[in-house]
């Protein structure tokens, strides 16, 4: 048995010596949801040494209850940090088993990242942690790790440009859809999603396991749909062929999910409940984001219309749940893949695992074309409208049903998404708040979003009048000023 495999008894480390430094460090992390407020309750749920105590470096796995949310931390411990790891320092506790040592964010340490891969290659348990893998997958040893840079909800490591490990930060009981759905899709033979090859969970007394991390093939040389779209906008190029292909890819994934996992038909009461959930989220967001308040009544109209539609038999199924251009990758072979099936990170896990109308994902993508167009100077409404049309046409081509036919549902979901985005941006990227706010003004005024022509070449950025502001004659609002360009 290797040294690493013999470790793993639940650590006796108390939280108290680390607590003051964690209180300072946690709110600064991109993945920490409780930003902007002081941490109240901080409690240790579990702790496990992934290396025998006294190893240098040491690796400590923690699950912390922070004001009711559970967070996963992987902490490194060394007597001193090499310069490359200096930015990872969390602090030097004065007492406890790590007294005088450097406690740091462990994922940035290649030695510790390599150890995590070894754990995933060899299934088994380690204190509260359970490591599992697809028995058919051959995961090579000693792949060089590097942390993924860039903005993320979680933290990811890339191994040898062959695999990517996502370490979930805010976790909860129950299988994470980002493991559940790609596994179901892989089993169903759907090649649009990288199939998980290994994963790890926490098994705590008296509850369902918590998914902590998923390893999947890294699509080397792929282009992120968001960056591709921005590149096209910058060079004045059309994106409708890609939008159409994305519509087809989304439809294929939806069809495979509907075939592989339970579906339900929402009756009038459930549709009304859906609408009241959206209304409640709007009210909560308006309390948090003052800029939204003047539009609250107008936005509510979309949800009232959904409730009044008394929709009976609305098909609901497992969906992506947070689909946008940044969740799409065009592989080196030109195939579109979808990633990150976690759903909206802020929603409770049980909600994210509930079947919902597939239109929710479509609304997410339609919003994303708007985001891309608004991040371009000047705002490129015709470009966005053409992409929206192409996406719906691609979707319809595969499923036989054009999502625009579900007008009330689509409008409600687009409104709900824009509200979610307002909260997301105000919490994480206040400089971007103007992007969803532009959509919110339009949606609150009751204007439907136009769908432009999808033929390539008809929609150059910034061209012509503004069909993108909906059916312009219906909009009582002047055209918004070009936004400040968000950093990408
Ligand atoms: N299988 C993959 N192949 C290549 N790149 C990937 C893969 N999975 C994720 N990525 C890259 O990592 C980024 C973050 O992944 P994502 O699943 O969205 O994480 P998070 O939930 O933390 O936001 C993506 O935007 C993409 O650039
Ligand atoms: O971190 P995730 O990718 O899971 O998703 C969150 O962050 C996204 C931003 O990184 C956010 O997406 C919003 O901004 C995108 C441009 O950066 C845009 O394409 C999306 O349409 C827009 O919703 C997403 O909402 C959030 O959950």
From TrEMBL:
Q: Which GO terms describe its molecular function?
A: ATP binding; kinase activity
What's the superkingdom here? Bacteria
Q: How does it assemble?
A: Monomer.
The keyword Cell inner membrane appears for this protein:
no
Offer one example of a GO biological process linked to this entry.
Answer: glycogen biosynthetic process
- What does UniProt give as the signal peptide span? none
Organism listed in the record = Streptomyces roseus
**Lineage in the entry?**
Bacteria, Bacillati, Actinomycetota, Actinomycetes, Kitasatosporales
Question: What metabolic or biological pathway is this protein involved in?
Answer: Glycan biosynthesis; glycogen biosynthesis
Q: Where is the Maltokinase N-terminal cap domain?
A: 25-109
State the EC number(s).
2.7.1.175
Gene3D superfamilies the record matches: 3.90.1200.10
Under the heading Pfam families, the entry gives: APH (PF01636), Mak_N_cap (PF18085)
- Assigned protein family: Belongs to the aminoglycoside phosphotransferase family.
| Span list, region Disordered | 447-488
Low complexity bias (residue ranges): 454-472
What is this protein identified as?
A: Maltokinase
By its UniProt entry, which InterPro entries does this protein fall under?
A: Aminoglycoside_PTrfase (IPR002575), Kinase-like_dom_sf (IPR011009), Mak_N_cap (IPR040999)
The Aminoglycoside phosphotransferase domain covers which part of the protein? 146-397
């Amino acid at each position: 048995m290797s040294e690493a495999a013999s470790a793993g008894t639940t650590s006796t480390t108390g939280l108290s010596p680390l607590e003051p430094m964690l209180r300072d460090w946690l709110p600064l992390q991109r993945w920490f949801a409780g930003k902007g407020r002081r941490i109240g309750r901080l409690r240790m749920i579990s702790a496990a040494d992934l290396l025998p105590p006294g190893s240098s470096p040491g690796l400590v796995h923690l699950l912390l209850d922070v004001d009711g949310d559970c967070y996963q931390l992987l902490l490194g411990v060394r007597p001193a940090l090499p310069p490359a790891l200096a930015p990872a320092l969390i602090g030097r506790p004065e007492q406890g088993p790590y007294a005088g040592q450097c406690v740091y964010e462990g994922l940035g340490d290649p030695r510790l990242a390599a150890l995590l891969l070894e754990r995933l290659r060899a299934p088994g348990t380690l204190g509260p942690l359970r490591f599992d893998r697809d028995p058919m997958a051959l995961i090579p040893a000693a792949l060089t790790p590097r942390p993924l840079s860039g903005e993320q909800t979680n933290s990811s490591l890339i191994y040898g440009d062959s695999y990517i490990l996502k370490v979930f930060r805010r976790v909860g009981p129950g299988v994470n859809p980002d493991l559940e759905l790609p596994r179901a899709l892989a089993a169903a033979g759907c090649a649009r999603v990288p199939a998980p090859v290994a994963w790890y969970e926490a098994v705590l007394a008296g509850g369902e396991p918590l998914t902590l991390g998923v390893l999947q093939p890294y699509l080397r040389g792929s282009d992120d749909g968001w960056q591709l779209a921005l590149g096209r906008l910058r060079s004045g190029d059309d994106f409708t062929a890609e939008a159409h292909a994305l519509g087809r890819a989304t439809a294929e994934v939806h069809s495979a999910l509907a075939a592989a996992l339970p579906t339900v038909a929402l009756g009038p009461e459930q549709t009304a409940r859906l609408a009241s959930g959206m209304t409640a989220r709007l009210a909560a967001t308006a309390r948090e984001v003052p800029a939204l308040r003047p539009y609250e009544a107008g936005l509510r109209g979309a949800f009232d219309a959904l409730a009044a539609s008394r929709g009976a038999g609305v098909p609901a199924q497992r969906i992506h749940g947070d689909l946008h251009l940044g969740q799409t990758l065009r592989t080196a072979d030109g195939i579109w893949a979808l990633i990150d099936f976690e759903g909206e990170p802020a929603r409770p896990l049980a909600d994210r695992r509930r079947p919902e109308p597939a239109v929710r994902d479509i609304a997410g993508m339609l919003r994303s074309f708007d985001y891309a167009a608004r991040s371009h100077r000047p705002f490129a409404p015709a470009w966005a409208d053409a992409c929206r049309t192409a996406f719906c046409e691609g979707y319809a081509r595969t499923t036989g049903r054009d999502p625009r036919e579900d007008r009330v549902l689509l409008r409600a979901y687009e409104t709900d998404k824009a509200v979610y985005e307002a909260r997301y941006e105000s919490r994480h990227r206040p400089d971007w708040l103007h992007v969803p706010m532009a959509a919110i003004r339009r949606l609150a005024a009751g204007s439907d979003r136009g769908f432009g022509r999808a033929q390539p070449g008809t929609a150059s950025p910034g061209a012509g009048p503004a069909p993108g502001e909906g059916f312009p004659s219906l909009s009582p609002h002047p055209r918004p000023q070009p936004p400040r360009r968000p950093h990408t």
